[in-house]
Amino acid sequence: xxxxxxxxxxxxxxxxxxxxxxxxxxxxxxxxxxxxxxxxxxxxxxxxxxxxxxxxxxxxxxxxxxxxxxxxxxxxxxxxxxxxxxxxxxxxxxxxxxxxxxxxxxxxxxxxxxxxxxxxxxxxxxxxxxxxxxxxxxxxxxxxxxxxxxxxxxxxxxxxxxxxxxxxxxxxxxxxxxxxxxxxxxxxxxxxxxxxxxxxxxxxxxxxxxxxxxxxxxxxxxxxxxxxxxxxxxxxxxxxxxxxxxxxxxxxxxxxxxxxxxxxxxxxxxxxxxxxxxxxxxxxxxxxxxxxxxxxxxxxxxxxxxxxxxxxxxxxxx
Length: 318
Ligand code: RIB
Ligand code: CA
Hints:
The chain is α/β, with parallel strands linked by helices. The protein is built from twelve helices and ten strands. The chain has one domain: Ribonucleoside hydrolase-like (Inosine-uridine Nucleoside N-ribohydrolase, Chain A, Alpha-Beta Complex). It has helices at residues 19-29, 48-61, 85-88, 110-120, 135-143, 173-177, 179-186, 197-200, 207-214, 219-239, 249-256, 303-314, and strands spanning 9-15, 34-41, 69-71, 126-130, 151-157, 192-195, 261-266, 268-270, 281-283, 295-301.
């Protein structure tokens, strides 16, 4: 659903920065169509102490120290913590040398803030944009089941079906880290739109595009280029591709320009029993089960338009 003319769409970004998360946050902060009510950090790519700090660093990079950043859950609901320093570096935001943040972390726990914010807002008015494991959102739903009816939509990066997984052969990282949280979200009845590897792997970065960010001549462009130069090396080596996927910005680009994407309403269930397929998003793409659709699964993207949008918006930042 695109933002109505003249009104900014209120969103909450739940995230585990992460270079691709950082670009998604920059895209959101550069887009007047979106009102970022707050950013909630979750343990994922790196531990929570780093994801919350990285979220603050990115807000300051964008010239937005006013944005409220909250720390959420420090570990998954059931399973042990799995992180991805091999992809994102030991800081989670390797590449640029960003200063320690001066803006303060909010004192409230992210889950409590999410619950209270949803209860105070008109029902259905807020979109949750989740870019990491779903631990915060699931915990909020467990603590306050009434908020399920108050969330307008959850647009998430996670999962994979024909593309398989990137963390195990069956599972994508965000879902693999906390499959039980994903199960809570995918059985909540909330309107869901999922951006799996099947769409994010169809929009690979190019060296020329990353260089075009550097050519912006801004601190945001320089930092984004340094982040992506570092970040894409892992997937380029892994997949033997000329560029890496930029997963998380798909979520925000979808809110800004939904016409760049296509997908299908499907039933999606989460594997939480088998170690072999733990965290798999089992997508009934061909409607072979009697289970009703519970998620719009995105599997197509206009890559040229996607990267043009990101560059155009990043050019607006300092
Ligand atoms: O599998 C890709 C996802 O896992 C992205 O959100 C990336 O930031 C990591 O969180
Ligand atoms: Ca992420």
